[in-house]
């Protein structure tokens, strides 16, 4: 790969990406453009601008953007229309943020004439795959620089020495070993490493940042009603809200009740297993609510097919194939299934749990007239079940007859 002339760096303003910024300049002698995305991580982003300027980046080359609405509307909501869960438990909070960041890296590269993009993902994790697959899908000619796979700064000591040699400010708490690493956005927080690396040991309480301990959550339950239109949540307790505002509100409500904690050992795409502590308070409520409204509005055949497709869809997102034709094909089928997923779900939030307790819709397929134990006024002829059962039993009876015959 020829040396890049201008690089767009996914920049957090933290120590690692600040070191990467300076390393790119010293290693390649290139111009660096920084891109910092506000995905609802809950941090003030102005310090990232100040840090970039301090390290010599031109103000015209510093991009800080609020992507919260786009993130929830165009990435989180499509994923939740599929009820996507990886390995039965993980709501894909980190995975779904990466394609949006990559999309903006490529767009900024095109706007600024940059010939390369760079990220700070390590060579052991999934994010390197997600960033780069998305980047190449959007621009097959882009150069992608992954410093963690190239440099010799293989220890925290070497990183700090590099920072000091290049006058990169080091926060005092960064001089020691961080207890764990954190990635956060509006959908979730992810904590990994250090004190969490032994899966036999319980995670310390201080790891959890967005959720109250369920045992210390309010003793009184809280009820919430979530309105849906075509599979997307649009209101809370009758108040219409934008996608990001709605998820923010659900995070607050669910976090107070200790909802959305997950301690998971997952199979990474790169081959190893890793242990992570995830908090997805609003997303946990949203998934329960979406399944609740689908229960009365989605046909059995469509619902069961969706459940069969979901693990494949979730794995595509986890592995970084958001911009692949197969994910887009599945998305089209999933979105078609949501045409009548409109209505309201009432949930009970209590001590770490979110449970559907009511659901109603003008598009409902539920017929009380058909399922009642009282007189159904001829809506359903129970005698029809006899023929239905006999036809479905025919092959089973033939199998049993053959087995009996072969036994002699």
In short:
The chain has 408 residues and is α/β, with parallel strands linked by helices. The chain has 12 helices and 14 strands.
Summarize the topology.
Blueprint: E1 6-10, H1 15-28, E2 31-38, H2 46-54, E3 62-66, H3 68-81, H4 98-112, E4 116-118, H5 127-138, E5 143-145, H6 156-165, E6 181-184, E7 189-192, E8 222-229, E9 232-236, E10 239-240, H7 243-256, E11 261-267, E12 273-279, H8 281-297, H9 300-319, H10 325-337, E13 343-350, E14 353-360, H11 368-371, H12 384-406
Parallel strand pairs: 1-2, 1-4, 2-3, 4-5
Antiparallel strand pairs: 6-7, 7-12, 8-9, 8-13, 9-10, 11-12, 13-14
Number of domains: 3
Order of helices and strands: EHEHEHHEHEHEEEEEHEEHHHEEHH
Rounded Rg: 26 Å
CATH A-level architecture of the largest domain: 3-Layer(aba) Sandwich
Task: Compute the number of helices.
Answer: 12
By secondary-structure content and strand pairing, the structural class works out as alpha/beta
Strand numbers in spatial order across the main sheet = 3-2-1-4-5
Distance between the termini: 74 Å
Largest sheet: 5 strands, parallel
Oligomer: single chain
At the fourth level of CATH, the homologous superfamily of the largest domain is HUPs
> Can you tell me the overall shape?
elongated
- Determine and state the CATH class of the largest domain: Alpha Beta
The level of helicity is: 40-55%
Question: What is the overall pLDDT average?
Answer: 94
